[in-house]
Amino acid sequence: MAADYDVPAIRRTHDILRVLSDRPTPVKAAELAQACQLPKSTLYLLLDCLEQRRWIERRDGGYVIGLELMALGSAYLRHDGLQPAFRQAAGAFVARSNEVVQLAALDGFDVVYLAREDARRPVRLVSDLGLRLPAHACALGKALLASLRPEELAACLPGALPRVTDRTIADAAALHRELDSVRQTGLAQDQEEVATGLVCYAAYVGVTPLGKRVAVSTSIPTDRLDDAHRHEVMEGIRRVARDIALRVIPGG
């Protein structure tokens, strides 16, 4: 394998965009210089270049992610038909169950949210598009981790499993037991492990022709989850995963 080749301008651009994507408000140039460890002269050249291409925009004395970058990023879903397949399957689920549906991919040991179909009633969610969560903490992550071969799982598991809430699994042996259950039932869940008062159910979709390992989930407040509704959404999210797989996964 060829050695990694580093292009400083690309690395610095990536660092700038990563800082902007992680912040909910505009970031001033001085903060970017400090966060990215860049000389101001270099930083301003990069900012000017990115702004000209609308990858970033100036807002309130700082910088935010720009419209062109969002448009470029949306192509990630279009390449292998994920977007229309997700919209059709998720729309049918929302029409039946009136609960949100989320699509996510596995990236290392992170879950990255790619798309969401909202229900007709509000729910407090942590699934903004592009958001990353540690895979062991959420139902989507467990569905994705359970699909890995043993050597792949071992390679991506970190040395310590951080807690997101006090109910997050933080023990590797307990996580492996839960992943065994996911493989047996075809359904992953988290019980307030990402957000207090929120239960999630997820099902694995598969690996797309372009190598995206994806899963779908639904998130429901505990105060409206009786036994009948729980059974309905568990079966429903399995159906969403199957419907998407039939459309975009080879042999799905």
Automatic annotation (TrEMBL):
Ranges where the IclR-ED domain occurs: 68-250
GO BP: any one term: negative regulation of DNA-templated transcription
Entries under InterPro entries matching the protein: GAF-like_dom_sf, HTH_MetabolicPath_Reg, Tscrpt_reg_IclR_C, Tscrpt_reg_IclR_N, WH-like_DNA-bd_sf, WH_DNA-bd_sf
Xref: PROSITE patterns: HTH_ICLR (PS51077), ICLR_ED (PS51078)
GO terms of molecular function: DNA binding; DNA-binding transcription factor activity
Pfam families recorded: HTH_IclR, IclR_C
UniProt entry keywords in alphabetical sequence: DNA-binding, Transcription, Transcription regulation
Domain of life assignment: Bacteria
Occurrences of domain HTH iclR-type (ranges): 7-67
Name assigned to this protein: Transcriptional regulator family protein 35
Lineage: Bacteria, Pseudomonadati, Pseudomonadota, Betaproteobacteria, Burkholderiales
